[in-house]
Amino acid sequence: MASLHGGAEERGVPGLANALVVFSQTAEDGEIEVQISVHRLMLDDNARTQAYKQAILSQANYFSDKVVLDVGAGTGILSLFCAQAGARKVYAVEASRLSSLAERIVINKTVENVCLPEDEKVDVIVSEWMGFYLLHEGMLDSVLTARDKFLKPDGKLFPDIVSLYSAPCSLPKFYDHWEEFHGLDLSPLGDEERRLKGSQPDITEVNKDDLLASHQIVCELDLYKTSSKDLDSISSRQVFSVSREGRYQGVCLWFDCSFPSISLDATRVVLSTSPHCQQTHWKQTVLVLPEEMYVTEGDPLAWELILERGGDDWRHYNIQCTLLDPEEERHPVPCECLLPKCCLIREIIDKHAQTLGSQE
Amino acid sequence: MASLHGGAEERGVPGLANALVVFSQTAEDGEIEVQISVHRLMLDDNARTQAYKQAILSQANYFSDKVVLDVGAGTGILSLFCAQAGARKVYAVEASRLSSLAERIVINKTVENVCLPEDEKVDVIVSEWMGFYLLHEGMLDSVLTARDKFLKPDGKLFPDIVSLYSAPCSLPKFYDHWEEFHGLDLSPLGDEERRLKGSQPDITEVNKDDLLASHQIVCELDLYKTSSKDLDSISSRQVFSVSREGRYQGVCLWFDCSFPSISLDATRVVLSTSPHCQQTHWKQTVLVLPEEMYVTEGDPLAWELILERGGDDWRHYNIQCTLLDPEEERHPVPCECLLPKCCLIREIIDKHAQTLGSQE
Known about the structure:
The first copy, chain A, is 25% helix and 29% strand.
């Protein structure tokens, strides 16, 4: 047991005078193996850090005097925000031998093996567990374990609702670039690059103008109810109606996560990794299609996405994307695509609306 | 043997109709292991690609009908520039099993084991062999081997003169950043990061405004004369006079390389990786000092830099930087620092100039 109290106060962190930040075990004095630069990247991701800060500090009246568990605390930044917000105690659990900084003790233990003193339960679990395409690295399981072991029945999860989205897109930097390069056509290099990329999802920044249709939801998880088993396999059949003509070259994935608003005057804070928002270190995840296709407005597109835990490393996922025949899929109602059945449905809905309108 | 002729022409590359690009061996049909994305990074480095393009294409009258050897051809972009410039033949040698693209054959052989047909000699060796801080990865040795084996006595090297520079600098992103982070003082994290970085040079972008003195040359290599042995150990004792006050936190290294101007109307093209120029993928190399020091204008600084080939991997270098007592070092003449001897020398020079002036 060690207290951050003195240290934090000495360093002049405002609002920490009332907080006792307790780390649950002394760190091994072993070598520090994890490069701080990875954490620096995450800290420097302003959308990420700012969302957590706002979600926590805007509800200081809720956090006041609460007991918090920070799962996968890393550099401890979320713990410090909770302490700033008035938390009475923050247990920071970190599995990697990240660092034993001056006034901080980080344990080399997974949350599965943690025991809080006198089987204490916590009011809040904060965690920044999201990986690429939300699920990569499977750290959510640790949060769910912590929830089941340590969260009070009315306790809160920060974040508590997460969603994975997808949309068809163009990938100009994997195509256009090679076709005219300093007066040379290097498209064979582009073909090769795409072939290599075809074997695994690529983490890259997708421009919002390169999305070819409105996004669809792959899955939404309510973290109070989700079980580890639910994460073994996630699948979704999706139909899109092209809203911008262009070269259909990839499937773009991203996620949002949303924080509870407990205080009456607070609104839900959403951290979005959408191409429509400020880019984050998660960027977007792209599945590069083996063949491109030119699509125009109103064209229907369909695919089935399956995310399954990998065999050897259960924390990794295999992503499978199967392009489907959109004519054989059930479309949303109404659907903007130009397939006869969808045009017909739109017409019926329009007429119905007119009829209702004329009856008013 | 395979010809790029047909392929290049079919793909409409201008200026290739007269060029026969010959690759010296059939590639193994083995798996492609090197990620093209590394080469993409280099191709996308516009300062790099543009410098080679300009150095080569601006001297098309020299390249016309010449035989060229491209050492470490990678994606073959330099070979294509030479072909565009009118080269009769381009031998492209690539040691890695990079890729066997449609119309291109890249050999899986080091240049040391290459034999050109009928012991042909070449007019030009082009190569982009530079690593971080110029020498990292030691690919220059392969170019020197190729020079000794294949270059005609009056043949040219592209590039032919390279220089390594150093200057003292501030490293705000390794310091300032942590001291005020979302209302928190995370300086222990910064200390830790710098401690980790202390064990090896960091590749990072240094802002020109963070340089604290004019740069000094660590070494200049004339590649017509340099031997592999010259590269085993490079050292330099350097004295700087601080030109901008600030926090002296690191030693910044970068390099320039310069291409021959053979045509009468051509000027030397210089590819610079200086903080004063457009940033390249080489960025700058920084040695983070264990302690920072506040310096003001006129302060003298001195160090000895030693770059030595590593023990286990002779292609890697160990860099050692020893801070010296500037009072005990020989300063350049004139030197702008405020040490009495340098002030005195400046005064004498000034007076001498006045005397000379009054005699005129």
